Amino acid sequence: MRFDVITIFPDILTSYLKEGILARAIKKKLIEINFHNLRDYTNDKHKTTDDRPFGGGPGMVMMAGPIYEAIVALNEKCKMKNEKFGKRIILLSPQGKKFDQNIAKRLSKYDQVILICGRYEGVDERVKENIVDETISIGDYVLSGGELAAMVVIETVARLIPGVLGNKESLKSESHIKKGALDFPQYTRPEKFRAGNKTWKVPEILLSGNHKKIEEWRRAQL
At what angle do helices 20-27 and 147-158 cross, to 10 degrees? Predict the structure, then answer.
């Protein structure tokens, strides 16, 4: 699966891809992640990607032109490689639909997901109206830009691609998702942890060795 991230800060997240699950998935060629500098698709010497909003108001708005040119260039590149992707173009914005595991599962069925990272006061509405397939938000709060949101989407979707996770973990996650929760409470050694004048204990059921009862307890926590 291929992810393409359009941003004015193409190097801001590259270090995250050098460790953990995503690094292993890239090495095994299960996923491909590309960052594209939006400034490369401008047509002025200052490489302008934003301008003042019509109607007045504070801040700057990202322009539709460079984003359109970036999408056109990506489409042409795929054609030159004879790659016929089932793709989805997504704008990351606080005004979008709340991202969840069901959306991640749906996106994992595509061959390519293009993520457009907003900045400043927002993105020209014509991008939403004419370029993207959908707008997604990772939560009701404000970030400086869409880059962190893009990485949240990428990792969540990538985990659902066959081979990225071990079979056992994949099946466990799928089971929890169907039940409407992601995981049950987990504990590890020591059995009793001394915190100041208090002792924090592991639930007795987990120490019983009765796997049927343990499984029932875990299901009840979901």
Answer: 60
Q: Dihedral (C-alpha) 30, 35, 41, 44: value to the nearest 10 degrees?
A: -170
- Reference 64, options 128, 9, 12, 160; nearest CA is 128
**CA–CA dist 167, 69 (Å, integer):** 40
Classified as helix, coil or strand, 67 is helix
pLDDT given at position 8: 97
Contact by Cβ (8 Å): 181, 172: no
CA distance 22 to 19: 7
Global pTM? 0.85
Query: Greatest CA separation found in the chain?
Result: 70
For the chain of 222 residues, list the mean pLDDT of each consecutive stretch of 10.
97 93 96 97 96 93 97 88 80 95 96 95 95 96 94 97 77 53 85 94 96 94 84
Phi-psi label, residue 192: left if phi above 0, alpha if psi -120 to 50, beta otherwise: beta
DSSP 119: B
Distance CA 46, CA 170 (A): 47
Closest of 96, 110, 103 to residue 4, by C-alpha? 110
CA–CA distance, 183 with 177 (Å, rounded to integer) = 8
